[in-house]
Amino acid sequence: MKKSLIALAALGTIASAAQAQSSVTIYGTVDTGITFSNHNARTGTASNGNKFGVDSGNIDTSRLGFKGTEDLGGGLKALFQLETGFKNDTGAFDGQGFARKSVVGLAGNFGTVTLGRQSDILDDAGHAFTSVKDFGNFVGNPHALDRLEGIRTQNSIRYDSMNLSGFTGSLIYGFGEQAGHTTAGQSFGAGGTYANGPLGLYAGYYQSKFGATPSDTLISSVAALTGLTPAQLSAANLDGTTVNKTFSLGASYQAGPARLYGNWSRVNVPDLLKQNVFELGADYAVTAPMHLLAAVQHTKTSIDGSQGSKPSVTQFNLGLDYYLSKRTDLYTLASYAKGRNGALVGDISAPAVQGDNGNSSQTAIAVGIRHKF
Known about the structure:
single chain; 18 strands
């Protein structure tokens, strides 16, 4: 009897040790608010109208994720992460499956290597050093081509270095996976971030090419900015030609209760258009839970072959964020965007109506709650 008890105790100890070597975490964000915007296109007409509603993901896209690690010994770990987005106002999933992130990989004293669908280092930098940290989807991609939030790249492999006194470097490569045409749908990027004390810096580059199954989701945005349809772009036999080159750099500095930041990005769609995006902003902690937010962006677009004036958008953003706890906050956000010379204003997939002179404007306001778990 004693031997049986000793054996059972030993098995229990081994099982507990094995369990302690691996972990799985369920996490997510639910972000929903009451929103207002003006100058929205009315269905079937060329006029505009106001829009009220309950919207999901004003700052952070509502999401559900699973991530875990297993200790393999000798400092080596296996890891995975699966993340999907959803619309909290309707309950519907945003996209298919784990489209936000789906990776598996290894981490050790060499750094981290992951494979699957994932974003490049500009996504990390955007959520750490730019207005995306404070305003999220209000500023992430309103009228520019994914310059602050990175680009999700499928069929990709990514390497991130160890943290070296505050510096982390990163490389990503996306396979086009088109037989007989290696460069079609291919993409790659590189960059680094530095965070040490009050100073933060980042620089990143990303390039992708057209293909039957492109590694990124820029096609619809390029079509909207150029006036071409996705079908016209696909019919242009552009496989293997570059669809996007993005270079971005920026800095942030924590000066007492104020976080100050600025950045510049250059987006180039060869033979179609170029964009320069500038941003300045601040996050001022009035008290530990209460933050005043402000940012301004200016986007200037140059369409190749056009002899007219260059389209531009200037957007001003203000916000108040109050943290009830580390995981729950209440927010009020407001933005005003002014477009000139035919520039798109508002959501790039459903821009505000333009006036007869090619100018447009839109005001957007959101009052909401965000909870992280």
